Automatic annotation (TrEMBL):
This is Thiamine-monophosphate kinase. Belongs to the thiamine-monophosphate kinase family. Mg(2+) 4 binds at D30, D75. Residues 150-299 form the PurM-like C-terminal domain. It comes from Pseudidiomarina taiwanensis.
Length: 330
């Protein structure tokens, strides 16, 4: 059944998402009016998902609703911010009630969990494109940045890496894995978990942080460039899931962990004198990030070592880049 723009907004987004007390005016006016708490600063991030670039047409609408929000909350987490509000720009080839119901369900689930309110946006007709702008708040002067890493700092990642890349490779029939392992890694690809609580715990503790969206090497490279430092990674310390280690060789697992995107884990650095504080905070979270190396003084150089020896395999140093990679039709 065809639905007009305003009916679409009212039916699927106006009354279905959580409401916050700091939203003075939300959906239904020309703009949102929001209260930023005294002593806090606003953090704003935006991400776009485009069909046949970030997902194919087989991806479920519920997964897209979840992921469109999750990738933004992951950026907020990397800066230590508390998620508060989102706006949504949704471009659809046509109005599809079943798709919209599933999409808004996925959006609602993650917004409910992280107490985010949808406060505005736009709907248009065209190729399927989903843009979310997320807002968060952080105590004044406490936002974690990419710059700040120093030689001697310890390098951490929040969870196992590479599963999303393994799922994508399996979808493209580039690797054969069991159905159970495929289910597990597909969940990581389509329903990533933004590490919001960890990000907030890292305030005053982490010297730098970034979320891993384009691959560990690529995103760590942003920290190294901003901080003008280098890093040495102990490859045997990189956390890998059981699905990964039982599905591919060690070499291939490390390639996925180092270079494939869509993990949405945190990569961060902690100085030696903050490690005790860091461990204490983690004990209250029940979270176990893994130390995978250390920061060096060799600007922008990443050394890969396996059992103390240099790892000789050539690996790309950058992740996916728009306008450099050709588009693939699905």
């Amino acid at each position: 059944m065809a639905t007009g723009e305003f009916e679409l907004i009212d039916n699927y987004f106006t009354h279905r998402l959580p409401e916050r007390d700091d939203v003075i005016i939300g959906i239904g006016d020309d703009g949102a009016v929001l209260d930023v708490p005294a002593g806090f600063q606003l953090v704003v991030v935006t991400d776009t998902l485009v069909e046949n670039v970030h997902f194919d047409r087989q991806t479920s609408a519920r997964a897209l609703g979840h992921k469109a929000v999750a990738v933004n909350l992951s950026d907020l987490a990397a800066m230590g911010a508390e998620p508060t509000w989102i706006s949504l720009a949704l471009t659809l080839p046509h109005s599809d009630d079943e798709w919209l119901n599933s999409f808004s369900h996925g959006l609602r689930e993650i917004c409910d969990y992280f107490n985010c309110q949808l406060v505005g946006g736009d709907t248009t007709r065209g190729p399927l494109t989903i843009t979310v702008t997320a807002h968060g708040v952080v105590p004044k002067g406490k936002a974690i940045q990419r710059r700040g890493a120093k030689p001697g700092d310890w390098l951490y990642v929040s969870h196992s890496l590479g599963d999303a890349g393994l799922a994508l490779a399996s979808q493209k029939h580039q690797v054969n894995i069991s159905s159970e392992h495929f289910r597990q890694v597909s969940e990581r690809l389509h329903f990533p978990t933004p590490r919001v609580a960890l990000g907030q715990a890292l305030r005053d503790v982490a010297s730098s942080a970034i979320d891993i969206s384009d691959g560990l090497l690529a995103d760590l490279g942003h920290i190294l460039r901003a901080s003008q430092v280098g890093a040495v990674i102990s490859l045997e310390e990189i956390p890998l899931s059981l699905a990964m280690t039982e599905s591919v060789s060690q070499e291939q697992a490390l390639r996925y962990a180092l270079t494939s995107g869509d993990d949405y884990e945190l990569c961060f650095t902690v100085s030696e004198d903050q490690r005790g504080v860091f461990d204490t905070k983690l004990a209250t979270l029940g979270c176990k990030p893994v130390c995978i190396g250390r920061i060096t003084g060799q600007a922008e150089k990443i050394e890969l070592k396996l059992a103390g020896e240099p790892w000789q395999f050539e690996l790309p140093q950058t992740g996916y880049q728009h306008f450099r990679e050709p588009l693939e039709a699905s």
